[in-house]
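Hi support team,

I'm filing this because I wasn't sure whether my run with flavin-adenine dinucleotide finished correctly. The job status page said complete, but I'd like someone to confirm that the output block is well-formed before I use it downstream. Pasting the exact inputs I used:
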Amino acid sequence: MASYDLIVIGTGPGGYVCAIRAAQLGLKVAVVEKRATHGGTCLNVGCIPSKALLHVSELFEEAGHKFAGMGIEVGAPKLDLAKMMAFKDEGVSGNTKGVEFLLKKNKIDAFHGTGKILGPGKVEVTPESGEPKTLETKSVVIATGSDVAKLKGLDIDETTIVSSTGALTLSKVPGKLLVVGAGVIGLELGSVWRRLGAEVTVVEFLDRILPGMDTDVAKQFQRLLEKQGVAFKLGAKVTGAEKAGEGLKVTVEPAKGGEAETLDADVVLVAIGRTPYTAGLGLEEAGVALDERGRVKTDGHFKTSVDGVYAIGDVIVGPMLAHKAEDEGVAIAEILAGKSGHVNYDVIPSVVYTYPEVASVGKTEDELKAAKTEYKAGKFPFTANGRAKANGTTEGFVKVLADAKTDKVLGVHIVGPRAGDLIAEAAIAMEFGASSEDIARTCHAHPTLAEAVKEAALAVEGRAIHM
Ligand code: FAD
Ligand code: NAI
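And here is everything the job wrote out:
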């Protein structure tokens, strides 16, 4: 029987990164993955394909609406959706093959099949066809990720009622797309299809979009999306959908109760969150405890209720983000190799890859107010940034929040061009415990969008130069 130091179940960003780091540190490692390709949700049906479609649909929109104004006459762009999808698929396969290569390079044994924990030190792998085999190991890391959260009354068929997975592979642009949930998936994939020609309506249960993000940022972002043509129905819930000819009649009710209305849609995208994925792992029999939301319970150092069994990524508590899963993968690998792995949960950036982008790290103003923390805020609009003006991308602002007494940066929130790249500077500053003064005194190259971060830090003490 093959025997390992570590078996990782699931090769998403959490699992494959954990396996590589453990192998780097000299452990004998195997991975078990039930998909045909590695990379998990993120590479196969998540981050990568969605970002490919966001990239090309943004270029499509620019070619149609912005190029002429910049002196580039190309005529009206024509959409070849099949080719666009092939471009996206190439990006996915480039990435999944990359992971396969990295696993081989690090001498990690990869088993394809469903992994099940049989008991301490034993993992069974059941391939799609063929006999199950049992592997022995000192430690197991569960990195099985998450699955689409279902909504009662809406049966996902991935053609007319779709999850994010179906929304990444539609064979034609829907005339009307109704999105349930104004979270990250709804706004990213809603943006993709709007740019390609769909009429998009987003129905959101709460009275705001992007819960968890800074309210100021979310409000401004909603206005910008509305200007682009996305319609919002806030404080409303979808209670059912019926087939009507080729399309659907969707019932929408006010969240607080009241009269229902019916909306027509060609496609409905259900994007109301994701749930931890633990099916088939044999956790109950093995004695691995789950929390009230079905996540694998861990002790703060990734250890589950069973000795030798650990868990990371979307399947445990915390934001369901690829980079959070990766950092946890590195941390547990280091812990298992006798080092002191650690994740700083106060500094996990989060990005919405729309146009403009939305990015956030650290505490929001709402959180600081709720915790009665005294803070100062500095805000700087992209309309006053030289590079944004030159590029014609002046939507949005940067906001820096700093402790009123110590000036330590507590949070940075951006809605604007390339916000997802700009937030890295804020994350580094916070990781090093920087003050807003530190950012303000750091020389930033001109002309860059990053100067807006410096100016927002200067604005904390009311001394922004260009405003
Ligand atoms: P996963 O990536 O879900 O990987 C788990 C793997 O485990 C899967 O491959 C699964 O097949 C396998 N598995 C499950 N059970 C078993 C078993 N019993 N045996 C063997 N294998 C098993 N996050 C970002 O940070 N940035 C983004 O831009 C972003 N975009 C996204 C877009 C979409 C449309 C979606 C759906 C998600 C997006 N996410 C994004 C979230 C991101 O994909 C997840 O946070 C991330 O994939 C979690 O990684 P993980 O390793 O925990 O799990
Ligand atoms: P989400 O949690 O971001 O948003 C779900 C939204 O649906 C919330 O606003 C919620 O209030 C709303 N909602 C819930 N039930 C509803 C109902 N019945 N009717 C109407 N609205 C309802 O979840 P989403 O967008 O599905 O994404 C899942 C996960 O994937 C997120 O946790 C996110 O972190 C991750 N992801 C990350 C991305 C990124 O980092 N760029 C991109 C896409 C996904």
